[in-house]
Design a protein that fits this description.
The structure is a homodimer of 394-residue chains.
Chain A (H helix, E strand, L loop, with lengths): L1 H8 L17 E5 H18 L2 E2 L9 H7 L8 E3 L2 H9 L4 E4 L8 H11 L2 E6 L2 H14 L3 E7 L13 H11 L4 E8 L10 H24 L6 E4 L2 H6 L8 E2 L9 H5 L10 E11 L4 E4 L3 H4 L16 E4 L5 E6 L2 E2 L4 E4 L4 H5 L5 E5 L3 H5 L4 E6 L2 E7 L5
Parallel strand pairs in A: 1-17, 2-9, 3-4, 4-5, 5-6, 6-7, 7-8, 8-9
Antiparallel strand pairs in A: 1-10, 10-11, 10-16, 11-15, 12-13, 12-16, 14-15, 17-18
Chain lengths: 394, 394
């Protein structure tokens, strides 16, 4: 009896007595070798294009992951999506931070505190005159300098001025003319690259992203501004861009881990998937034909973006805990807050996934799944080797 | 210039200089009066039925909210969905905790530590013999007692044995016969109450929920077991149940805050909605016809459950920050990680929501939206009066 029950708790190679606690489930597993390979691939891409990689840390929100993504350089440029991230990475020694979400007038005091406290150079983003005016006001009031990129819309339809608009030059001028404000360049993001899984189409979107950014930069240069930064990026466009001529830096984030969404659009291979959720089987409902696991909508997130190109993605693919190979065609087919339902295709699955056994679930969208957790259980050749914390929230 | 920019930062009554920090956005606002009224309504319902309310704290994950939901009694029975919640509430003095997710063999050591450390009575849940056997094994090994409810499936098709199954009695017997294990009763959850917005249909589902639980309890009594606990509940069935005869306790959680999903199914009125996300307008993209806010998919969650009965729910209704009245028919129509897009119906919306102004967004599903935040900015008559922390994770 003790023998058989104890094996239920075994993680196989995940709990091999090397001094790291066996993680309770649900938890995030991060494969260090895959993370490293993904990081190198995108550093190489940037290098090949002759641009700087400015990894977006909104996916990982982890200093330890960031050091891998930057090739080990704390002074490497990075991108963040919240001021909480900016504060966390600046406190850890990152000195060149782009806050790549449109600035709000109410956030200047917080940025001023951050730059005074840490000495980090934080570059802000805007596409409007209200924020440009507010920047001038707060720079004067707080005695600090605020540097900006002007956000350009390259077809995503989210933030940004049109690259050929008068507003582009007006925003730059308003910032340039302020005593404590400056414009360093332009930034754009081809979010529309997520609408396709065809690499050739993505390459054409990458052309448009580059042309919008470089065109906007050249218009600012013609208007008399120095433009040092021409920033582009989304993980698909960086992966498939054919030329980044005129661009100075490329941004991407989910390349750190990849996920079913990226796999479905061909941006990564199955063996590049570095992030999974470890879950425990807590029940079999044979009348309903389901295996129940303790990873539900909070542990996996309710993001279902991968279904666009992988109709069977559900809330994630179900994999063997040790091998990361899929369990037949199974996915998590429904979720409640703390329950994941796996509809089984064959009664043999109940024996394959007994109550108490563990499975790994590859999520739809790593950025959203990871955001529910305080950190990563890092594994190396399947064995736990480290715990890396994350910094969530705003 | 300073005047006009400063007003951009004003929260109106939310930032009225009463000593509480103006919250940065996005953040959660919790209306204390509405929370109190919602709590009283469901305490009254339970009282009218002559059953104990065992509020589910998976929605709030907050000791301060829990004290309101229990009518101020720390010794009141409560429900949790994670062992992290159990530990947090036990450490805060809650002594009667039901962990209402199927137990896993790998979690007994953690539960034993919790009960030894805090003295709290933690009741566990299972529907299978593997966990019953593991309970006996770990009770003997760890020298602690484990008490269970047997989970019954009343038509939800998630966890639970059928109320008329042999397995019901077998699981109870296996637990009863262990030296350190016991069965206290039965529990069921009518998750299928979420499939309808018709109160009469919900009342019939509540009948079935009650009948399944009471029927299972009676079968166990006939088999010779003492059954002290007959536990039922979901927020809709508790709200609309006509009789809870034979039931001892009712569970519900989202009644604390309510949300668009509950509003859409008629479980609450508009003026009962206690939780909203405060967001800041960060841009206007007139070419795309959108107002951009700094509350995206992480701040609002990607749960879209409310669309089932409110097709225009989007990722939440957009409301005026001060009045909580809707801004026309607007909702958050699309999200990225930190961006919310509000498609505007009329150009006047740009003036109504200038860059830097704030809006409140009523989320689809409070349990999921709240889970992204470390706590609540509590407001009283629109003014900040407290900050209540949450305990997320597993």
């Amino acid at each position: 009896m003790p023998e058989s029950v104890d094996t239920l708790r075994s993680f196989g190679p995940l709990g091999n007595g090397d001094g790291f606690a066996v993680p309770d489930t649900p938890c995030l597993l991060l494969d260090r070798a895959r993370l490293g390979a993904n990081a190198r691939r995108f550093l190489d891409i940037a290098n090949r294009h002759g641009v700087t990689l400015r990894p977006h840390l909104k996916t990982c929100k982890s200093v330890d992951v960031a050091r891998v993504l930057t090739g080990g350089r704390d002074d490497a440029p990075v991108t963040v999506s919240t001021l909480a991230e900016a504060e966390y990475f600046a406190a850890a020694g990152f000195t060149d931070i782009l806050y790549a979400v449109g600035m709000a007038p109410g956030k200047f005091e917080r940025v001023a505190r951050l730059t005074k406290d840490t000495g980090a150079r934080v570059t802000l983003l805007t596409d409007n005159l209200v924020v440009a005016d507010a920047a001038r006001h707060f720079a004067a009031r707080l005695g600090v300098a605020f540097e900006f990129l002007v956000e350009v819309d390259c077809g995503d339809g989210r933030g940004g001025v049109m690259p050929d608009s008068e507003l582009l030059v007006q925003v730059a001028r308003r910032l340039h003319e302020g005593d404590g404000t400056a414009v360093r360049g332009v930034m754009t993001h081809a979010g529309q690259s997520y609408d396709t899984n065809d690499p050739v189409t993505v390459a054409r979107i990458a052309d448009r992203e580059r042309d919008a950014a470089v065109g906007a930069a050249n218009r600012l240069r013609e208007a008399g501004f120095d433009v040092d930064v021409v920033s582009v990026g989304s993980t698909p466009t960086v992966a498939f861009a054919e030329s980044l001529a005129g661009v100075t830096e490329a941004r991407c984030g989910v390349h750190a881990f990849f996920d079913l969404d990226q796999f479905g659009r061909g941006v990564c291979r199955w063996d590049d998937l570095a992030l999974s959720v470890l879950a425990t089987v807590i029940g079999h409902n044979r009348a309903s034909g389901i295996v129940l696991v303790d990873a539900g909508g909070l542990a996996l997130s309710k993001d279902t973006s991968a279904r666009h190109f992988l109709p069977d993605a559900g809330y994630g693919y179900v994999c063997h805990a040790e091998t990361m190979q899929r369990v037949g065609p199974l996915s998590v087919t429904a979720v409640n807050q703390e329950h994941g339902k796996i509809a089984v295709d064959d009664a043999c699955r109940y024996d394959e996934m007994p109550v108490g056994s563990q499975v790994r679930i590859v999520p739809n969208h790593a950025c959203f799944t990871a955001a529910a957790y305080p950190g990563y259980h890092v594994i190396d050749n399947g064995a736990p080797c480290a715990y890396w914390s994350r910094h969530n929230g705003w």
